[in-house]
Amino acid sequence: MRDPWAEKYQREVYERVDFNDETGCRPATEDGVLLCPRPVVRDGRCILHAPKLTREERAALTESEAREEAQFEAAFAKALLEMVGAQKLLPSGIDFQAVHFTDIAWNQPPWLNVLSGHFVNFTMAVFHRQAIFPRFGKEVWFTKSVFRDHAAFVGFDNGVHFNSAVFEGPAQFSGTHFNGWVNFHDAHFEKSVEFSWPKVHGRIWFKGVDGNSVFADDAKFSRLEVAPSAEVIFEDVSLEKASFLNCNIEPLKFLNVRWCGATRGHGGRMSTRKRLWDEQRIQAQGADPGIRHAIAENYRQLVRSYEARRDFDLAEDFHIGEMEMRRIGAGPQLPRSLGRVEPWLNAYALYRFLSVYGTSYWRALGILICMVLFVSTVFLFTGLAATGPPTIGSSPLLIKYHFPAVTGEPRVGMLEVVRDFGQAFVHTLSVLTFQRERSYRAASAYSQAFEAIASIFLTGQTAMLLLAIRRRFKR
Q1: Is 378 exposed, middle or buried, given 0-12, 13-18 or 19+ CB atoms closer than 10 A?
Q2: Are 203 and 181 in contact (CB under 8 A)?
Q3: Measured between alpha carbons, how far is 282 from 398 in angstroms, rounded to an integer?
Q4: Where are the domains of the chain?
Q5: Beta bridge partners of 420
Q6: H helix intervals, 309-442
Q7: Torsion over CA of 47, 51, 54 and 59, rounded to 10 degrees?
Q8: Counting Cβ atoms within 10 Å, is residue 329 exposed (0-12), middle (13-18) or buried (19+)?
Q9: Is the pLDDT of residue 269 over 90?
């Protein structure tokens, strides 16, 4: 019956105004303590402000208890209508502050007319059952309201305030029209929330406060329609389980938000980067090409958004995410038994290996060094011939090693191996830098073919390195 959040908000008001007189129905409101004249009927409260039962609590009642509770709820509905009838002519609108609600057909008369034609104040109200609201015609307040069950909203023609509101059950804003100032400052979505096909013509603000991340569970944003003059802001909130599939999120503002984090605490940027929750989900469950394309599009939009704000580190993370989605979808069609290999057989996988999609000049430099050392080693075995006449004490005319060793061939000392490798290393650098004058040349057709192939790979990896450096220092 009693809700912890409602009790917390009430206690904060009592402490703020130093109130300790509970001789009658004294519910807390945002402005202070209401001196309600109605008689106490349950838990020190009147019929309107007394806690009600949730669906689960009501289902657990005995038959006689259920009949008694039904009578109590009927009396509540009658008292609620009387209260609304007395307030209809007031310019301030309808005041439902601190009222505890059971099942109310808000989208049916007479409540439909009440909500569409009046200012409505639900501050610190508690909805113990499902609450499905029609379109509100004027400004409405849900400040510190508690929704213990499923809550759904059709639209708001003016402003709506969900400051510190608590959604203990699933919340749904499907096709909802937002036409004014929409305030989710310090709101709590403890279960899933869905914003699908909403039409935004005002300003929506999600703001976390004092460690409150606003979204504690799945938050689905789908097909957002944001007018050019509208604004959607996420500030100090958690988007670790937020989905933005099929949304244009480039115009949305993300201020100090928490994205889905690392899958491992080590392994470089690929493992520690920030990512979208949708990517995390498809890695665990798989996804069709349409979803991968939508995620890649979201990443591209985030890259542009964060680059415009000059937050280049996060932009790099999201660039990697976009490339990952392309890599996963670009592999050849292989038998099902080879499905794990498929995403690694394409150019994107090679791009990832060589430079982490152009974001790591250290990776590109390391691989270039490995290539140079490998090519230099291979030249020792394919053969290098001196280009000039021999001189006393000069380098050998021919450098060529055999594996396995040729019978009768003299053993080579370590110093000679180091000297020969140095010559091969210098020759590799001359190939890399396109030098015309070289001390050595390829000694055989095999060596010439290898030199031509090596020059292509070395040049390509050098380009990867320069691209990564340019990308980093440009930013």
Answers
A1: middle
A2: yes
A3: 57
A4: 1-148, 170-259, 272-354, 361-474
A5: none
A6: 312-329, 347-355, 361-382, 414-432
A7: -70
A8: buried
A9: no
Using DSSP's 3-state secondary structure scheme, residue 430 falls into: helix
Cα distances from 463 to residues 155, 361, 427, 433, in angstroms, run: 54, 11, 20, 12
**CA dist., res. 321 & res. 298, Å (int):** 10
What does the mean pLDDT of the chain come to? 90
| Count of Cβ atoms closer than 10 Å to residue 25 Cβ | 22
Question: Considering only CA atoms, which of 209, 215, 213, 235 is closest in space to residue 167?
Answer: 215
Please tell me the total number of residues recorded for the chain in this structure.
475
Task: Give the H/E segment covering residue 57.
Answer: helix 55-59
Question: What's the chain's Rg over C-alpha atoms?
Answer: 35
- Measured CA to CA, the distance from residue 171 to residue 150 in angstroms comes to 6
Quickly count: other Cβ atoms within 10 Å of residue 387's Cβ: 11
- Position 287 scores a pLDDT of 65
Longest Cα–Cα distance of the chain, Å, equals 117
pTM (2 d.p.): 0.86
397 burial class (0-12, 13-18, 19+ CB within 10 angstroms)?
middle
Parallel, antiparallel, or unpaired for β 225-226 and 253-255? unpaired
Q: Which is higher by pLDDT, 182 or 436?
A: 182
Ramachandran angles phi, psi of 25, nearest 5°: -75, 110
Q: How many CA atoms lie within 13 A of 40 on its CB side?
A: 11
